[in-house]
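Here is one record:
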Amino acid sequence: MHSLALLTKDPGTKCRTTYNAPHTKTTITENIMEQTLLYCGTDVLCIVLLGIMAYRAVRYGLDVKSKKISFVATIGCSLLMNVFDILWHIGISDSTNFPRLLTAIFNAGYYTALSAASICWYIFSEKTHGNKLPNNAIKSLILAVLAVMFFFMTSTAYNGWFFTYDENGKYMRGPLFFLQFVPALTFSILSMAKNLLYAYSVKNHERRATYASICSFGIPLIACSAVQACFQFLPALSVAPTIALLLSYTSSLKLQISLDPLTAIYNRRMLVDELSHRIKSVKPEKTLYFIFIDIDDFKNLNDKFGHHEGDNALCIVANALNEVCAETGAFCARYGGDEFSVIHELNKDESITEFCSEIEERIAANAKKEKCKFNIKASVGYAEFPADGDSVQALIRSADEKMYSVKGSKNAQ
């Protein structure tokens, strides 16, 4: 941002050329045009990439509407920032000579859009963790602050607080120049800090990776802000949100591939990956368990009440498991069909049978709360590492056998 002002507004630039005098003006003009096209071309590339991400997010989007809105809003603000960057460079070129007020508006729009993008990303981060979104009063306050920020920075056309030009037309930073970075960096650093704490506190390494990816928005922004402050000829800050959003977008695609489309919990592939990771990292003071859950008489329920009610039953079980796992730090997934699995680590003095009973009770309670047309009961079997198996497949096989043993005992009654 603001790099070409040093080239186009500084007459001293022309004195440094080594070409013959008759060709000096043409050569300088060509060099300026090349750098302008290169700089603006970077912004155009960012706009194209952001546009593609916005389209795919809207079309194939995230699993929660509010998350999709905040993610797309972040993209939109970042895209707007690149547009203002292009207008700024066009505005300060010798061929246009836009009024100083107009260039101040472009500058204010650039930093306001960057701040808005950081705020939207913070909201997206909060929604990812299941936290409540800001109420209408808070949203109105944020919009008011952004509006005041925009007009405050626009006033630099008259007071030179953020930037100005000397008598030779050379661009100069104002005394409050670095204040333009503060709102965006504040929300980015706050989002990073909270997600690092979340990542440190969870056991699920896949969820930890998701929280770490949310931090990716702040890292390029902070690094590129430092580069931009030192080297104005580089469009570092302009590409920072695009880099950050690309990192997060690829991470969200990986997460979608890892989820079961019906129940929105992890699928078998992620279950095997998580179990393999837990086997390698289990602590000596903990006991690792693999638990199999199967819905009793599910085929008859499907035949009697229809597949819609069958799918609803699967979702009720998945939600119950998700609740229990969120409270205890366990990991749950849909193994396939009407079978689900849980991976959990307990202290030596904790009871696995009590945990399994909690699962069964939560399933029954959720079915009652959802006013299900039938009772949902489940058979639960578990395997202990390494007593019942020292590998992924051995644990799955042992838990499966014990689960069917429990199911057989019920049928015999």
Observations:
- Residues 163 and 173 are 4 Å apart (CA to CA).
- The first strand starts at residue 163 and ends at 165.
- The mean pLDDT is 82.
